[in-house]
Amino acid sequence: MTNQLPDRDPEETAEWLESLDALIADRGTERAQFIMRSLLQRAGAQSVGVPMVTTTDYVNTIPADQEPVFPGNEEIERRYRAWLRWNAAVMVHRAQRPGIGVGGHISTYAGAATLYEVGFNHFFRGKDHAGGGDQVFFQGHASPGMYARAFLEGRLTEEDLDGFRQEKSRQGHALSSYPHPRLMPEFWEYPTVSMGIGPMNAIYQAQSNRYLHNRGIKDTSHQHVWAFLGDGEMDEPESRGLLQLAANDKLDNLTFVVNCNLQRLDGPVRGNGKIVQELEAFFRGAGWNVIKVLWGREWDELLARDTDHSLVKVMNDTLDGDYQTYKAESGGFVREHFFGQTPQTKELAAHLSDDEVWNLKRGGHDYHKVYAAYKAALDFQGKPTVILAHTVKGYGLGTHFEARNSTHQMKKLTLQDLKDFRTHLRLPISDETLEADPYRPPYYHPGADAPEIRYMMERRAALGGFVPERRSKHTALALPGEKSYDAANRGSGKQHAATTMAFVRLLKDLMRDKGIGQRIVPIIPDEARTFGIDAFFPTAKIYNPNGQNYLSVDRDLVLAYKESISGQIVHAGINEAGSVAAFTAAGTAYATHGEPLIPIYVFYSMFGFQRTGDQFWAAGDQMARGFIIGATAGRTTLTGEGLQHADGHSPLLASTNTAIISYDPAYGYEIGAIVKDGLERMYGGTHPDPNVMYYLTVYNEPIIQPKAPEHMDTEGITRGIYHLQAASIQGPKTQLLASGVAVPWALEAQQILAADWGVAADVWSVTSWTELRRDGLDAEEHAFLHPEQEPRTPYLTQKMAGAEGPVIAVTDYMKAVPDQVRQYLPNDFATLGADGFGFSDTRAAARRYFKIDSHSIVVRALQMLAKTGHVPANAPAQAAQRYDLLNTNAGTTGNAGGDS
Q1: Cα-based distances in Å from 516 to 593, 670, 780, 781
Q2: How deeply is 785 buried, as exposed, middle or buried, from its count of CB atoms within 10 A (0-12, 13-18, 19+)?
Q3: Which InterPro entries match (predicted)?
Q4: What are the beta bridge partners of residue 398?
Q5: What is the pLDDT of residue 609?
Q6: Quick one: pLDDT at residue 394?
Q7: What's the burial of 550, exposed, middle or buried (CB within 10 Å: 0-12/13-18/19+)?
Q8: Which residue among 97, 449, 620, 721 has the highest number of C-beta atoms inside a 10 angstrom radius?
Q9: Using CB atoms within 10 A of its CB, is residue 97 exposed (0-12), middle (13-18) or buried (19+)?
Q10: In the prediction, which pLDDT does 4 show?
Q11: Which alpha helices (H) appear in 359-403, and where do they start and end?
């Protein structure tokens, strides 16, 4: 702050500094902090330009004189922490035994054990706590430590530990590699190893907790969200990109703990810099409370004697790459290269032996310092807190592991490593035992009656039970009756309405339902007006924990923008990643809180799975439930927006996620049937697999929405296909399969084929190409594995049994979408699709360009019929000429209505 400015009166400066030193000595650091804040505030009021202090010295944020008394028995906790570290390392090591070799990570938990254990012993509340359980996002690579603790707690056996990463071959005694709730649904709650997703989801989990509280669904005022992250992980844009939300919402129920071991997976995070200082500035600038835990208590005496701040200056100036090197060397090396930088610091450490220098711990390994930071984080109000804890990766594992660049990839220990580690941890395991089978060193458990284990269990009982633990029992919901679907079933009469609007009308009715209306959570990025959801603003209101404290510019309008503390709509702004994080938190509330929410995330379809597919994968892993609505879908319906907005592939991307049930409905009544099916499956309490997300693509092209057929084929709609309209004439047969916005084109093609060519075409609405394919694959798999049984016929094959003539499949997506089902039909099969990049133009021109319009369907059907002699050989050429097929300007399919 001062090195760029001249000091015109050093004597006066010295007097001010002496006064501050005297204040601290006489009144303590807390009083000094208040005086300094008061001076800065007065300086600002007097227009004295004082820069924002974004970084502080490289020392602990909490002074030694402000540390609370550590309430636990540190000696007991230290003993079983040693057992945890041994069992975690041995579990990974044994997983590398000959014939297994499944990998694992040893060093992350070794360096973070204290950070976790202080939390387990004193802070993390289980689900039986009177105030409700905390939500803890564990760092993915630290999972061995959580398994090691569960082993000491009696939740896992030795056989379970030996099943690490062998989920099928050791079924019944298997442990997933990382936190995967879908793989261990009673243990893990949050999938975190896809780095960057944990920080986002933790922020929105904290927001969701407040949302539940402010809307009166559940009292979450005593629940806290903890996210354990790596300093290398903070390079991910997702890790930092949503920090402002936590600050704006004043989420003081959220604490990030960043394990700053200064290393990524391959080497230093900032070898030539200081990642702790960078993160301090970043978080402080984003509005967070920052607590640095850099040095253990052994440094307190040295820092107290550092009257000229020479030691602090060395700490400030030392680069991360050097700090890493120091912990890979020796006490003598640290004395020479760290303390030896100035005569003053050399003298400070002169009374310490090399062993004592080596034992000057980093703050993240000190129970007292970590406890003080956690308590301060919980006590702090009005802001989220980040704790930046300085640690050593591979701490205690020996010279082959500690702080080495390669330590993240090291999976096993040598015999000597095992002996040294055993000695360092003071475990009663003999050399002979280790030498007997170096690939299978023993786990250590002193028995349930050991005082250390009793202490551990007492601490967990006092805090409300085990962590992590996942429970899926929840409040039952009364699902809507048929009346809620009336609007969807009666069509739009003479009025044109896009399927987006048909869905919004259905959503409006569902939100009025007494049983589930208040449980619905509409989630939108900054496109509510595009989707017609702005109609919800005045009544449902937009959730804002600060309310609406300004005079709205559109307050006199019927559809005024209204924010409220108890608002129902989660409006994430221009922020698809945040929207999916909000969706995940709401969609898993049934397990996290035992209170189901029904998230309905509506977004530009192009910016869904293409942009946030990894998050949807994590949502599936976390067993989220809800509806994902890809609005303004398709490659040609968005007209003027062009390439970057033209979605021709989202159903394919969605199909890669097994937890996604994907639909491409054409009409409002199809949407009603699908939504009803989804509600019953996810929240009805009877389906064997409710942990799915329903993905519906909807369009912005207005059409006449027909009434539901009198004998609506609900099963066909929900399973993927139904017979929409039979041919009205006799003649050569063909089958037109279409989905979504393409169904009206197929109906128009049906009329043209009949009127101009005497061809009898049946039209089928395919609501889900993906579900038809999955059903077909299931039938093939069953036949493969049970050759002694009669093969099951795929649903699509059953449905179209007896359907004569070639099949023409058409969608507003690329050809690969309908090609998913080609193998399940014996008919000749042709696909029309919008392959390639999108562009800006009229709908009619775009569809003619891609050859997916009504006349293209006609020509393609005639080509297929001509091959078999059912129409004259020259009919296709005549049709192509008649309809001017190669002329983009000759297209007529679709209309110009609908907003982009």
Answers
A1: 17, 21, 39, 38
A2: exposed
A3: PDC_E1_N, PDH/Transketolase, PDH_E1, PDH_E1_M, THDP-binding, Transketo_C/PFOR_II, Transketolase-like_C_2, Transketolase_N
A4: none
A5: 92
A6: 83
A7: exposed
A8: 721
A9: middle
A10: 67
A11: 367-379
Burial class (CB in 10 A: 0-12, 13-18, 19+), 556: exposed
Query: What is the reported pLDDT for 900?
Result: 44
| Whole-number pLDDT of residue 410 | 60
SS3 category, 736? strand
Please tell me the predicted confidence (pLDDT) of residue 643: 86
The radius of gyration computed from the CA coordinates of the chain, to the nearest angstrom, equals 32
Task: Give residue 398's region: left, alpha or beta (phi > 0; psi -120 to 50).
Answer: left
Determine the number of helices (DSSP H) and then strands (DSSP E) in the chain: 35, 20
**Total length of the chain:** 900
Nearest 5°: the CA angle 227, 233, 236 is 110
Q: What is the 3-state secondary structure (H, E, C) of 150-164?
A: HHHCCCCCHHHHCCE
Asked if residues 883 and 890 have their Cβ atoms less than 8 Å apart, the reply is yes
Q: List the structure tokens of 250.
A: 């004043």
| Residue 726: burial class (beta carbons within 10 Å; 0-12, 13-18, 19+) | exposed
Extract the tokens encoding 648.
């021709």
| Helix or strand run (H / E) with residue 3 | none
**Alpha-carbon span 602 to 579, nearest angstrom:** 9
Positions of the chain with pLDDT lower than 50, given as ranges: 900
Strand partners, 164: 175
DSSP secondary structure of 224-263: -EEEEEETTGGGSHHHHTTHHHHHHTT-TTEEEEEEE-SB
Residue that has been written with the tokens 């929409």 in this structure: 724
At 823, is the secondary structure helix, strand, or coil? helix
pLDDT score recorded for residue 50:
74
pLDDT of residue 2: 66
- Phi/psi class of residue 758: alpha, beta or left (left: φ > 0; alpha: ψ in -120 to 50)? left
Non-local (6+) Cβ contacts of 79 within 8 A are 452
Q: DSSP for 502-521?
A: HHHHHHHHHHT-TTTGGGEE
pLDDT at 267: 87
pLDDT tens digits, 485-511: 999 999 999 999 999 999 999 999 999
Contact predicate 468/188, CB 8 Å: yes
Helix (H) or strand (E) holding 137: strand 135-137
Q: Which residues pair with 254 in a beta bridge?
A: 225
Euclidean distance between CA atoms 330 and 241, whole angstroms: 39
In whole angstroms, give the CA distance from residue 582 to residue 599.
Answer: 8
CA atoms within 13 A on the CB side of 260: 28
Report in angstroms the alpha-carbon separations of 473 from 185, 465, 596, 693: 12, 17, 10, 19
**Dihedral pair phi/psi, residue 225, rounded to 5°:** -105, 125
pLDDT single digits (tens) 351-404 = 999 999 999 999 999 999 999 999 999 999 999 999 999 999 888 776 767 656
- φ, ψ of residue 211 in degrees (nearest 5): -60, -45
Q: Give the C-alpha separation, 456 to 459, whole Å.
A: 5
